[in-house]
Specification:
Two copies of one chain form a homodimer. The first copy, chain A, is built from six helices and two strands, in the order αααββααα. By secondary structure, chain A is mostly helical. Chain A has one domain: Orthogonal Bundle (Arc Repressor Mutant, subunit A), CATH 1.10.10.10. Chain A has a two-stranded antiparallel sheet. In chain A, strand 1 and strand 2 form a beta hairpin. The radius of gyration of chain A is 20 Å and the shape is globular. Chains A and B meet through helix 1, helix 2, helix 5 and helix 6 of A and helix 1, helix 2, helix 5 and helix 6 of B. Chain A binds a DNA duplex (30 and 30 nucleotides) through helix 1 and helix 3.
Amino acid sequence: MKVKKAAAIPESTLVDADTHVESFRQTRHNRRTELVEDYVELIADLIADRGEARQVDIAQRLGVAQPTVAKMLKRLAADGLIQQRPYRGVFLTEEGSSLAGKSRERHQIVENFLCALGISPEIARVDAEGIEHHVSLETLNAFRDFLKQRN
Amino acid sequence: MKVKKAAAIPESTLVDADTHVESFRQTRHNRRTELVEDYVELIADLIADRGEARQVDIAQRLGVAQPTVAKMLKRLAADGLIQQRPYRGVFLTEEGSSLAGKSRERHQIVENFLCALGISPEIARVDAEGIEHHVSLETLNAFRDFLKQRN
DNA sequence: ATCAAAACATAGCCATTGCTATAACATTAC
DNA sequence: GTAATGTTATAGCAATGGCTATGTTTTGAT
């Protein structure tokens, strides 16, 4: 090791180590919550669209196998986000519904924002799906403001 | 199940199932490559900054333990992205260097873009760390154009 | 009322990405 | 040249998120 924090002379692009760590930590944390958000959001959409959200439909939409969904739903139920009524579909609890709403809104803003930038709808959808989970409140507000200004 | 693809009458926000699947598939794929990109990018930065990238430094920057890094480096080496010279640090191959360059540029554009939107530098950094991996070429170009217009 | 089809549950596997604890090996200082 | 220090390797564990294969149960059609 050469030097340790050459006191305010960053001879390169390398940011402060602690800051660096924080970014990665935050990103790792986001990655853990992404799936949960995807699920509740999808469940809310399915319920809104067809009145129910079955495992098979969720699996089909996500492009994963049914047991994968089953395992995940167990976790969501344990976390108090959903309630399972066998052969009747999955329903969101108060908390799950709230999370879904937030996710949905954020998703929409991100997607609309990308479209407003001139990105094609298909690409915007795909990118938004990945980006939405990494957008802080501040950034989300900036996106919103941008959209408002545009109209 | 009620209806199957009500032919162009999307009574809700629910997009076409195949499209939906594609978005999620793409996102899952991105999630798998994220870490690799983070590593090569960090390695490039470390080498640029201090002339070498040791496991311990990488671990410290990422906020993970050294064996975690060791395992990952093995994979990167197997993938032909890096070359390990024990007790001398890690070096990027041609391919690794190329990937690092691309990642770095993309990261920079995303971060600058967020800053240009008025987001604070600290938040921009954190968000960019998460967002960069989910930005398609088209979106990246849109960001670039936005930055160009601004100057 | 029965039985086929659909939906769900469960078991057991794999890969990935973390961790701690500990061993082995190089470098460097002396 | 040896000892202390720093660096890397390895073993073994856990959680997560996939999978296939195979039950079990409910529903709904006849």
